[in-house]
Amino acid sequence: MSSTTIHENNHHNGSHIPKKPKLSSTFITPSEIESEFGHHDAAVARINNGSFGCCPASILAAQRRWQLQYLRQPDHFYFNDLQSGILQSRTLIKDLVNADHVNEISIVDNATTAAAIVLQHTAWNFREGKFQKGDVVLMLHYAYGAVKKSMEAYVTRAGGNVVEVPLPFPVNSNDEIVSEFRKALERGKSNGNRVRLAVIDHVTSMPCVVIPVKELIQICREEGVDQVFVDAAHSIGCTDVDMKEIGADFYTSNLHKWFFCPPSIAFLYTRRNLKGTDPGSDLHHPVVSHEYGNGLAVESAWIGTRDYSAQLVVPAAVEFVNRFEGGIEGIKKRNHEAVVEMGEMLAKAWGTRLGSPPHMCASMVMVGLPACLGIGSDSDALKLRTHLRDAFGVEVPIYYRSPREGEVGVVTGYARISHQVYNKVDDYYKFRDAVNQLVQNGFTCVVLSSD
């Protein structure tokens, strides 16, 4: 694949794509939504969109068309369709996230791949002596587990020092997060070390909290942090995403979680520097293929023979969200309002509380579970989740929060509930009733531990 044919400067520059596609004058109906997600298991209250997302039938059909187009004549597809199709997806993503230029957007499999790209780049800076051994990479304690493993695989092995920002949970305000972040920065800069990279979640996965990224990035700029990478696996379609406002050097988000694409597709934004240099010129995809050295966007667009169809259906996803009143902005607003309402309903039913105030939630909310369930470990949380799935048909992640010193009888288990367009009130009532039944039966997690 020639890099000149896929680069944004070719005649397929995406200029024919409207920046703000027209919203439908006839909005999608409840029965149409039900039909779009008719492949979901009707026996399960699926209130865990946050983990794997969802994909409506119309977008699955678009994906199938791309797959058949490839299988019908792979050579023609490779030389004539794939490159322009990926460029069209990149152009739409650029507009969705308000990036300056299409070349700032690369498409990769998922946020985990994006994290590997950024942290591999950091590791090479240590290896090549651009960073000194002991220099610091900062990350939140609630960083996604795979990102923590990437830190171990790349940064720590290369001689970097990883400093974690401890975050309170439950959390009551952004000020608590900002305060802990400032303290961790000071620890990182002690002994004359430089903080080379800060990895900040936009929406933490577990427990889920919307992080004040713009404020933290501003602090990083003031404190001399070299670069900032925002791991926003959940953000696009879930909370506000604007590259110019956020101001990160690197930013990634999945489109298969909250933007209705099939797995797996994510974008990695790399900000152009003041000289306008190609932002992806010194970053590389972990899978090295023929396009190595032609810039990250080009490298990522061809990593060998594989199914690229998930990366080609972004136009269909944009078309789908624009069938809803207000488009993706309307979906985000309604999901947020609904998940907060359902979270408060559950907390009231169980005599507990939310894990954060509503303004620190997006389309997911942490809800305290009754303390009498006896959730005493991560293992208990996982076993309870399995029990809810197998015995009650409820799919929801459970988080274990260890009690602080001196705390007795506190809530140690929190459920992370999601709301997406296919969810109904009955899904949350089913969860409420399942937990109430467990409480009434005198159930505790000790029963599961003895199995």
Question: What would you note in describing this structure?
Answer:
- It comes from Glycine max (Soybean).
- Pfam families: Aminotran_5.
- This protein has 451 residues and is α/β, with parallel strands linked by helices.
- It folds into two domains: 81-319, 3-Layer(aba) Sandwich (Aspartate Aminotransferase, domain 2); 327-449, Aspartate Aminotransferase, domain 1 (Alpha-Beta Complex), CATH 3.90.1150.10.
- It is built from 16 helices and twelve strands.
- Strand 5, helix 9 (213-222) and strand 6 (227-231) form a beta-alpha-beta unit.
- Helix 4 (57-72) packs antiparallel against helix 5 and helix 6 (111-127) runs parallel beside helix 7 (145-156).
- Mean pLDDT is 91; it is low at 1-19.
Topology:
Elements: H1 3-6, H2 30-36, E1 45-46, H3 49-52, H4 57-72, H5 74-97, E2 105-108, H6 111-127, E3 136-140, H7 145-156, E4 161-165, H8 174-189, E5 195-201, H9 213-222, E6 227-231, H10 243-246, E7 250-254, E8 266-270, H11 296-301, H12 314-321, H13 327-350, E9 364-368, H14 378-392, E10 394-395, E11 398-400, E12 413-418, H15 425-440, H16 445-449
Parallel strand pairs: 1-10, 3-4, 3-5, 5-6, 6-7
Antiparallel strand pairs: 2-8, 7-8, 9-12, 11-12
Helix pairs in contact: 4-5, 6-7, 8-9, 13-15
